[in-house]
Specification:
The protein is globular, with a radius of gyration of 20 Å. It folds into two domains: 4-55 and 335-390, Urease, subunit C, domain 1; 57-323, Metal-dependent hydrolases (TIM Barrel), CATH 3.20.20.140. The chain is of the alpha/beta class. Helices cover 22% and strands 23% of the residues. It binds zinc ion. Zinc ion (ZN) binds next to loops. Residues 62, 64, 91, 282, 403 line the site of zinc ion.
């Protein structure tokens, strides 16, 4: 493997914390040295990154990339390494019975360069589709679709890539209990369970209070800032269940999607101290053309909400690595760590507009991808479309499906 020297960027590593201009020497898939004026390796590749920032690998904790399974997914590389994002976690596109083919078709596919990890849906058959087929056919809430032994076996078989479960907490009569969530919690062990906050058509879900009460420390609420999700009470204040859940370590994830992130709700929750722990997109074919666009656009939106750049870096890199228990392998630029890094810059074109799908807001600058290091190899990025470049590409009320 060719040695690689990233030269002259501002290195931001929340695990240090480090925030300094330095070179980063990479060899044999690992960060070897971080410091000023490092000597280029003989025969190695040098990349001039003055004016940019080297940060730990961007990790999108919730997107849909099992392309070919249903009609919901985008190609992993198109939202991953092509945009400076080395790691994408699939948010439960697949249930148990189709996971092995997803693994062969995407995760292990030799042409897919993005590292794809996955939250698995605990049902035997689940696939995310635009028409919510598993909800329309009522198999997302059919106990015959649940097999705890098959679930445990599938996780064991794919333990290197299944980082947890994605649960649509449907119930079968008791609105306070989801057997699907219970099965995931039973098998999860130390792995996190990511739950979808919000409803689905056709199949009822348990109440937000019951959902919050069931979660363990380290479990993840995606779509946490969606608005009307039940995290804030009628008085606009955090519910007791939210306060208790976050106090014991339940994590709040952005999970933007077309309709599941609202600046107004984020402001309300952040005013009460409930900030996003992770910044995921829920990218799929129905929102990649707007209002989500890219993981980078999510980060620009966090800047627009007043987060600082170091905060945004932590929420986009180190925190998702911690959330999936990969903090030894991802989330740092320190010498000895695997060379999974991202390089971003902040546009100098002045304030830029962003939108949550409803409300436009100005950010001080756009977070722009420069490239990434995936398994020690430099991959330059293309600049994605954004609200600033494309405008409102969605129609009023045509938010599209969520998953
Ligand atoms: Zn999703």
């Amino acid at each position: 493997m060719t040695a690689l020297l990233l030269q002259g960027a501002r290195v931001i590593d929340p695990t240090g914390p480090v925030d300094e201009v330095a070179d980063v020497l990479i060899d044999d898939g690992r960060v070897r040295q971080v410091g000023p004026s490092l000597v280029p390796p003989p025969g190695g590749e040098c990349v001039d990154l003055r004016g940019t920032m080297v940060i730990p690998a961007l990790v999108d904790l919730h997107a849909h990339v099992m392309a070919g399974l249903g009609d919901f997914c985008v190609e992993a590389d198109s939202i991953g390494v092509d945009l400076g994002v080395p790691v994408v976690v699939d948010g439960g596109t697949s249930g148990v019975s189709t996971f092995d083919i997803c693994r062969r078709a995407v995760i292990d596919h030799p042409l897919v360069r993005t590292r794809v990890l996955a939250f698995m849906d605990p049902n035997r058959i689940y696939l995310a589709t635009g028409d919510f087929i598993c909800h329309k056919l009522e198999i997302a809430n059919d106990l015959r679709n649940l097999d705890v032994e098959a679930l445990a076996a599938a996780v064991e078989r794919n333990a290197d890539v299944v980082v947890g479960f994605k649960v649509r907490a449907c119930h079968v009569g008791d609105p306070l209990h989801s057997p699907f969530l219970a099965a995931a919690l039973e098998v999860a062990d130390a792995r996190p369970v990511m739950v979808h906050l919000g409803r689905f058509p056709h199949t009822p879900t348990i109440t937000p209070a019951a959902l919050l009460d069931a979660l363990r420390p380290g479990d993840i609420i995606t779509h946490a800032f969606r608005g009307a999700g039940g995290l804030l009470g009628p008085d606009g204040r955090p519910t007791p269940q939210l306060r208790e859940a976050v106090a014991r370590g339940v994590l709040l994830d952005m999970g933007h999607s077309a309709t599941d992130f609202r600046f107004s709700e984020a402001r309300r929750l952040m005013d009460h101290g409930y900030r996003p722990f992770t910044a995921s997109t829920d990218l799929n074919v129905f929102n990649v053309g707007g209002p989500v666009f890219s993981y980078l656009e999510n980060l620009t939106k966090l800047l627009a909400l007043g987060c600082t750049l170091p905060e945004v870096v932590e929420v986009a890199t180190t925190n998702p690595a911690r959330a999936i228990g990969w903090d030894g392998r991802l989330g740092s630029v320190a010498p000895g760590c695997p060379a999974e890094l991202s390089v971003i810059s902040l546009s100098d074109e002045g304030p830029v507009p962003v939108s949550d799908g409803v409300e436009p807001l100005m950010a001080p600058g756009a977070v722009v991808p420069v490239g990434c290091v995936r398994d020690g190899v430099w991959i330059p990025a293309r600049r994605p479309a954004s609200f600033a470049s494309a405008g409102p590409t969605w129609g009023v009320g045509s938010g599209g499906p969520v998953g």
